[in-house]
Amino acid sequence: MTTLTSPSARRKARRFALQALYQWQLAGQPLNEIEAHFRAENDMKKVDLDYFHALLHGVPARVDELDALFAPALDRKVQELSQIEKVILRIGTFELLDRIDVPYRVVINEGIELAKLFGADDSFKYVNGVLDKVARKCRQVEIAAR
Fold this sequence. Notes:
- This protein is an all-alpha fold.
- It has helices at about 5-25, 30-40, 50-60, 65-70, 85-100, 105-120, 125-140, 140-145.
- Helix 1 crosses helix 5, helix 4 packs across helix 5 (about 85-100) and helix 5 runs parallel beside helix 7 (about 125-140).
- This is Transcription antitermination protein NusB.
């Protein structure tokens, strides 16, 4: 039986969080309304709901800090990123900072998978490079231990 914190349940939570945060970025709708809509309109039985909630509320609460962390790794301004790349990088950076329980390699891989699914053709390569640089800043001890 799958638990709510399984890798699969977390992957689904990230996918829904990406879609919800994309909606927040574009429309500026209140997060509680977006969350209620997603919970009502989607089959959330196999989703880590706590993780979905943490991403949906944690990323906007720290958006300036997150952008400032990954901005030095970009080849353009944050404002010039596609909306999807921006959401993926914000989620990944948030996880690298705030979710020490998730190994950095998992965070990067999940960002790559989201970019393959939702991003432009080669955006997964860009996301990989940026999150790798952010991980080297945020997870030095974990990387050194490998």
